[in-house]
């Protein structure tokens, strides 16, 4: 079978699966979903201004809240998944100067087969709501539509405020290939930051011009060892254990053969910034989505097709069955309590893969429902909340 035929089949399979899970996945398993919806509902009709978490995420709160309120879980699940798919397209087109579109399908299969990039974007959560406008900004920056790029960069910041850090490698490293002078780079960055900051003005006013809302829940109570352990373990599991070490091995043996290094500065910059952020808050694996996208592009540029297909096969294997090198002990085994690891032993085992973990987590939304009123029943069924 030719590569192009196999590529089409795999991509259709991934897209069909994403559409199917969007309709049957409900409101997901993340308690932050209800916080996002609650923030929208609190502001509906001129109500009280409320942030969904420690730091507000205005664009995502309005978008996810509106879709959930008007149409139900299927709409926000589907749009979030589409956002991830489009992020891959515009990231590819934004960096690939020669527009080698015949390879874009293989790149999309590579990223979508990753369990984090796939299953975490079938939830009504805000990661790809920030990632897509960032990738669109990159694309329009490449096309030298600077004003449009600034708008999308601003929307990205309005979705997740720390995304302004990714503008540093995108604007100051990548744009050098298009002979953009330093003054224009600074203006693009400041313009993007200004537009993104406008989304947070109401919260700034509400807080009396203080910045106490710029915070997050950090696991510092676990100590330095605990944070470092979580950091490295979760990076590995964002690929799956076997996939991660296969990639490291392949990179090591092909180190001298790496090419396309002119793209490496922007990609490595995105990866390093994302890892620094993750070191500060090593929590959700989806925090790593920008670095996963950049890392897979490096692999895509430098690995042969046969090796890329091998990685895709390992991705799909992790959907079904997963090797777990550690037995992790948690503070509580109740699925409705926050997941907090307290210790771990080396105890290799095989466990259900990410597909089964996703399916089994669909009922977890009931953990965050405190009442049995009509709104709670709608959430359990995935219905529109209006």
How many angstroms separate the termini?
A: 50 Å
Largest sheet: 2 strands, antiparallel
**Basic shape:** globular
As a percent range, the share of strand residues is 5-15%
Q: What integer value in Å does the Rg equal?
A: 21 Å
**In which order are the strands of the major sheet placed?**
1-2
Give the tally of β-strands.
2
Low-confidence stretches: none
Tally of separate helices: 18
Q: Which secondary-structure class do the elements indicate? A: mainly alpha
Average the pLDDT over all residues and give the rounded result.
86
The topology string of helices and strands comes to HHHHHHHHHHHHHHHHEEHH
Give the fraction of residues assigned to helices: 55-70%
Give a concise summary:
By secondary structure, this protein is mainly alpha-helical. The protein is built from 18 helices and 2 strands.
Descriptive report:
α3 (58-70) crosses α8. Helix content is 61%, strand content 6%. The chain has a two-stranded antiparallel ribbon. The protein starts with a helix and ends in a 5-residue tail after the last helix. It is globular and about 60 Å long. The chain is built from 18 helices and 2 strands. With 386 residues, it is mainly α.
Helix and strand topology:
Blueprint: H1 3-24, H2 31-43, H3 58-70, H4 73-95, H5 104-112, H6 115-119, H7 127-142, H8 146-159, H9 167-172, H10 182-198, H11 201-206, H12 223-237, H13 241-253, H14 264-280, H15 289-302, H16 305-320, E1 321-330, E2 341-352, H17 354-360, H18 374-381
Antiparallel strand pairs: 1-2
Helix pairs in contact: 1-4, 1-5, 2-3, 3-4, 3-8, 4-5, 4-7, 7-8, 8-10, 13-16, 14-15
